[in-house]
Amino acid sequence: MKSMQISLQMANQVKTFVNIVQNYTFDIDLRSERYVVDAKSLLGIFSLDTSKPLTVEIHSDDCDKLIEELKQFAI
Predict the structure, then answer these.
(1) What is the pTM assigned to this prediction?
(2) Which phi and psi angles does 10 have, rounded to 5°?
(3) Which among 15, 28, 33, 62 is most buried, taking Cβ atoms within 10 Å?
């Protein structure tokens, strides 16, 4: 498993993020403090406090391409 810190401050960033992660078959979670949601769920992400940094947890070791795509959201 790999993880990285991101920020999703605006609704269009959330939509772009979901469009990216939906292209991958492995599980991807998004964590905000003690809450964890499926990163492929638009509604799940909007249930989190996106004003704070979020942690993306990628449940695959072969995810370099995904990490490269998510660098636009990195903190």
Answers:
(1) 0.94
(2) -120, 155
(3) 28
